[in-house]
Amino acid sequence: MRILIKTLTILVLVVLLAVGALAAYLTMVFNPNDYRSEIESRARDAAGIELKINGEIGWSLYPWLALDLNDLSVSYPDRPLLAQLSRASASLNIPALLGGEVQVDSVLVSGLNLSLHKTKDGGDNWTAPVSDSKPELKTAEQTSAQGSSGAMKLAINQIKLAGAQVSYQDDTSGQHVQLNDLSLQADRVDPSKPFPFKFSSQVLVTQGEDKLIDLGINLDTELSLNLEQLAAQLNGLSISGTLKPAGLPAEQKFDLKTDLAFNQTTQLLSLKNLTLSIGKLNASGELNVSKFDTPEIAGQLKVAQFNPTELAQSFGVTLPKLGDGALSSASLSSAISGGLDKLNLSELTIALDQTKISGTASYGLNSGAIAASLKGDSLNLDTYMPPATESKDSGEAATGTASKGWSKDPMFDLTPLRSLTADLALSFDKLIYQGNEIQNLTLKAKAAGGKLNVSQLTAQAMGGQINATASVDARKDTPLLSISPDLKGIQIKQLLAAASMEKPPVEAKVNLGGALTTQGTSMHSLINGLNGQMKLSAAEGVIQGIDMAQELCQNIENLTALGINPDQVDRTTPIADLSSTFNITNGVVNNPDFGASIDAAKIDAKGTVNLPVQTLDYNLGLTLTDDLFNQSCGINPALKNTRIPVNCKGGFDADPAKLCKLDTSFIGEVIKKAAGQRVQEELDKKRAELEAQARQKVEESLQNQVGDQIKGEAGNLLKGLFGN
User: How do residues 703-715 score in pLDDT, each as one tens digit?
Assistant: First the structure.
């Protein structure tokens, strides 16, 4: 036995010496550079690629099988150059390989220049030409079986990619993407153990001559691999760098940290403990992606409180000046779900300044369609309006002669509506607009193809209930707007104030309904393009600044010398049972059937209100129904049930007391009526005197002719005839 062992030992030593001698001989005698042409030809025949080895090929055989290639280029026939390489080297431990372990000292790639080019006709330089002979592909089961039956241990001391550059040119879009100064390094690579992995690059994206993105990125993590399941775990993944897109005033630093897990077998990608900061914006959450063929996304997102104004400024966007405290604080949290075509936000909570909003929302990643169902508590819109500016002409401001025309400045821009696709349902417990409180607001609207349709707008505001539908057609340069309001119990003073009428002269709760259309984006174009019909009614109200009863008394006193003490009369006029129809054509309101009761009279009117020039021209008829002015003035009974005409004409800014003037043409008819009443009174008096005289003569005649009995019966009869 001892002789046998000794003999085997000698044989092994002889074999090792022979292998060593053969390796030394091959290294000295065999020169791979002599076979460069054959290697290039084999690459062309087997893979269909044009391989050029312009530099020296260095190699060693034992104990490390090392290969060192220099100055390579690769392309497909008749295609632009795909890749160039300054140097690539790798070394494999032969004794370890014979022991069933793949042990690599290092894999080094230096000076890689990869150029990907897509032409306008859809062609590219990285797709292999179609070949008649197709290689036999192994099935997944075959690959798995082969891998499991011959599993080998893998260990690489270092993988390093340095000085690389990758570029992608798309001629169809004109976009160019470059990864410059690309480097990658992994040390002590062992699939059974975590190992450090680093990556860095400078990313530049341009569109023609315009720079879109300039991004510096650094990645650092601890990587674990499972080759059998095609899985990877990146613990403590940190991605940081600087971002400078076109238009930014300064670089924006970003930092992403997470634990990432990827498993091809279970088709799951997860990001745990995710934090992201970009400039002044900080977010956290988690994300899971499953079913890679048709990806499904699920996760949570939380954006910490930030200042929207400062954030916009850091990205080169200057927001308009708003009220104090506007856009000073915001935060967001939501659950996330969806896929490649749609992103859903549920359990959504938004805090904007003092307003809290909750609900759901979704965004179509391909279509750009937006859907949202949101409910807010309280929002003060006045805070988000630009502050009022002082008059530029101090002289006009001092004398009150400033222009009263409607502004031609656009109030809103409908350009975004042309590309908007949305389905919105919004509600607020309370809104404040121009000092008016709006409660229980509900809005439902859809937008598509440049058209916006508001199917529901309800609210409690201005003391009453608002219901309306509306539409906006922005497909043309001049947008068309329509609205069908139904207002019940609305304070008209607040309504007129909302329409920019200062110091409205009327206070009343009105019902208003109808249909209106207009066009444009400025108040001038909206007023001048206004068309439609409205119906107005009010049970009671007050006209401020004028007492029509007093004006009647004073004007009649001037004509009939009746006494009046104007200080005893309140400067208001109560109104009741108001109803009217308004026909509107190009901003001119025609009112043919106004009717109301005011104080001790009834009023009827017809006329026009010219909104473009802010004037009115009305003829009112006042018919006295009672005399309630005995303490301040006396009204001749002849005026009762007489229509007294009043002409109201002037501008919106005129003094209400001077706006309406009494038409004295009716006085002649009143005098004739009064004269007729006096003649009738004289006739009635004369008749009574004649009746009394006739009765006396008849009584005297009967007394002389008949006895007391007949006299008494005749007397009773006469009393019955004459009422005495």
Answer: 555 444 444 444 4
